[in-house]
Design a protein that fits this description.
By secondary structure, the chain is mainly α. About 70% of the residues lie in helices and about 0% in strands. The chain contains 19 helices and no strands. α6 runs antiparallel to α7, α9 runs antiparallel to α10 and α14 packs antiparallel against α15. The two termini are about 45 Å apart.
Length: about 350
């Protein structure tokens, strides 16, 4: 089926489907991913033949950091609507997130054959960057920037190419140009700070970040606090890192990056009850997250509460019936009497 045919079939859906999709889109824009998911699953049940619900659900799951689920939801749609640019781009984004740039490139190039645009070309460039093919990435970006000199995403990606080449000054120059035109661009500001501190020794990076936070009107930029937390974590200053991650989560509640890092720090501080309180909810929402599972398992083991962890897995299975990720692991082969039991470990 062509992209046009697929779109035409979808426009014949009943008005109630449009209402539900609009409601879910509004919740997604507000970052209310759980509410958007609930609306979309309700819509999918009422309109099982309307594939827009699957596409929108996959998008919401992807934005919520539940990439494996997003992929499973989208896969059947891709086989049916393989020439729909929206589906191809979303699957390409999922491949990038799962560190599969070659597959992402294939999907983006398919999308370009259906409906080419600056957005598609920039995604192709992103895949080339992840494949370390910087010349081809820069070639795509040059073409895009020639068409739209103010394309912020393409310019930020070009700055990343400069950073990848070791040209921090060139990256900073590009990003400063974007900020001059749009001082409120937070994504660019985050990239600007990253380019400024990248490659510095941890102590120098810490000094630079603290200086930026002291003199910046952008203290409400979440990335600054996350970067500060990451640097403190690298230095083993876990208590201070937790404070920085808490500030980051105040600015963007539920962000998986600082949430995971904070759990790691609390684990190494021996604050196992707090690890459980912090990560239990996110795990129940996303039982396929291996980091959350291993960190929680380690925390329950440290508290000598294996039963509590089994109860958590059971609750995850009740909430998401059929979830393979929440299933208990197979029993290990019998150990020799004097062989110690292997404990769960937590990686940074």
């Amino acid at each position: 089926m062509t992209a046009v045919g697929f779109s035409n079939r979808m426009t014949k859906a009943p008005a109630s489907a449009l209402f539900l999709l609009t409601e879910a889109r509004s919740q997604r824009k507000q970052g209310q991913f759980a509410k958007a998911e609930e609306v979309l699953r309700r819509g999918l049940k009422a309109h099982p033949d309307d594939r827009r619900f699957q596409i929108a659900l996959s998008d919401v799951l992807f934005r919520a950091g539940r990439t494996p689920e997003a992929r499973r939801v989208l896969a059947p749609v891709l086989s049916e609507a393989g020439e729909d640019a929206t589906v191809l781009l979303l699957m390409g984004d999922i491949h990038l997130k799962e560190e599969e740039p070659a597959l992402a490139l294939e999907r983006f190039q398919q999308a370009a054959r259906v409906q080419d645009s600056c957005s598609v070309q920039t995604r192709i460039a992103r895949a080339f960057v992840d494949l370390k093919d910087l010349p081809r990435a820069e070639e795509c970006l040059r073409r895009t920037i020639e068409k739209d000199p103010d394309d912020g995403f393409a310019l930020r990606l070009l700055a990343r190419c400069r950073r990848e080449r070791g040209d921090r000054a060139g990256a900073v120059h590009i990003l400063e140009g974007i900020l001059k035109r749009n001082p409120e661009d937070r994504l660019t500001y985050a990239d600007y700070v990253r380019a400024k501190v990248e490659g510095l020794p941890p102590e120098s990076k810490l000094s630079e970040l603290k200086g930026i936070l002291r003199g910046s009107a952008r203290r409400d930029v979440q990335f600054l606090h996350t970067q500060l937390g990451d640097t403190l974590k690298e230095l083993g200053r876990y208590g201070e890192a937790v404070e920085a991650y808490e500030r980051a989560l105040t600015l963007r509640p539920g962000d998986p990056g600082p949430l995971r890092a904070m759990g790691f720090c609390l684990h190494h501080m021996g604050r196992h009850d707090r690890v459980i309180d912090l990560l239990r909810g996110p795990f129940l929402e996303n039982p396929g997250d291996a980091f959350l599972r291993s960190t929680l398992e380690a925390a329950y083991q440290k508290n000598k509460d294996d039963g509590g962890f089994r109860a958590l897995l059971e609750e995850a299975r009740r909430r998401k019936p059929g979830s393979r990720e929440a299933a208990p692991r197979r029993a290990a082969p019998a150990r020799k009497a004097n062989r110690p039991r292997r404990r769960a470990t937590v990686r940074s």
